[in-house]
Design brief:
This protein is an alpha+beta fold and about 270 residues long. It folds into two domains: about 100 residues, no CATH class; about 150 residues, YojJ-like (1. Helices cover about 55% and strands about 15% of the residues. It has eleven helices and seven strands. A seven-stranded mixed β-sheet has the order 2-4-3-1-5-6-7, with helices on both faces. α6 runs antiparallel to α10. The longest helix has 23 residues. The radius of gyration is 23 Å and the shape is elongated.
């Protein structure tokens, strides 16, 4: 019996052609990108619930009444996903039209835009650091941040030094939350972030730093923090906090994270 199984497995493997491999690879990539899009949004719980329903639907194939009841839940679940992820789906389609199916941009404009945004953020961070203006700037990457932007005020403004400094200026309506940037747009300001639950955090770690760490632990977003007390600049990514960064270090790290071309003149000299 074991020999028959081995022969059947061997025959199956030899019957797989390059089209089957391509088909599996494309589906796996689509699922991977979809999971990245879902990460950090409340729709992830809807996905888990829908998967549970599908599993129960498959297991209850011999129970017609239960199977029918579960089948009625599938369509509303799919509709709920479409409604919840309407902004993310629109953004994904825009990126697809701009960058192609593999997410690789063949346009120089995209790289230039990324570099401009990084320069504006670094310049704004430098100015706020010198003036002891506390700030928390979140740069979205692959993970969806719709749940975060919903907690703040929608702006959809172009990223600029003046806009960022104005938002975080003390006693302004939106200064006490986080700014979320997607591509070259300030999507929302005054956003509330989840705080880190790392047990080893120092008691001296400020609330902005805890919020930046908390978001970086749950998503792939990048958070830049300016301390109101000291003016020190920190960078949170992948659950790690890099404190006391100089302008050059911050710019270089952001360039690496977003694969933007480096402009050495702007990295070496401070903006006057």
């Amino acid at each position: 019996m074991g020999g028959g199984f081995v022969e059947q497995l061997t025959a199956t493997l030899f019957s797989i052609g390059w089209r089957d491999v391509l088909d599996i690879a494309v589906v796996a990539y689509i699922v991977y990108r979809g999971l990245l899009l879902l990460q950090g949004t409340r729709g992830s719980s809807v996905i888990r619930g829908l998967l549970v329903v599908l599993l129960l639907l498959w297991l209850s194939s011999g129970l017609p009444t239960l199977n029918w009841m579960l089948a009625q839940l599938v369509l509303p679940g799919v509709i709920a996903l479409v409604v919840i992820f309407q902004p993310e789906l629109r953004t994904a389609l825009e990126r697809l039209g701009r960058a192609g199916m593999l997410g690789v941009s063949f346009s120089r404009v995209e790289a230039d835009t990324t570099q401009r945004v990084i320069n504006e953020i670094v310049d704004a961070t430098e100015e706020m650091s010198g003036r002891r203006i506390g700030a928390l700037v979140v740069l979205q990457r692959e993970s969806g941040l719709m749940d975060i932007t919903r907690t703040g005020k929608t702006l959809n403004a172009r990223v600029s030094v003046d806009a960022l400094v104005t938002i975080f200026y003390p006693n302004t309506p939106l200064h006490d939350g986080a700014v979320v940037i997607r591509d070259d747009v300030i999507v929302a300001a005054g956003c509330v972030l989840p705080h880190s639950e790392q047990p080893g955090l120092s008691v001296a770690t400020g609330m902005r730093h805890r919020a930046a760490l908390g978001l970086s632990e749950r998503t792939d977003a990048v958070a830049v923090v300016v301390s109101e007390e000291t003016g020190a600049v920190s960078l949170a990514v992948d659950g790690n906090l890099s404190p006391d960064l100089e302008r050059t270090e911050l710019a270089e790290r952001l360039n690496r994270l977003f694969e933007a071309p480096e402009e050495l003149n702007r990295l070496v000299f401070w903006r006057r």
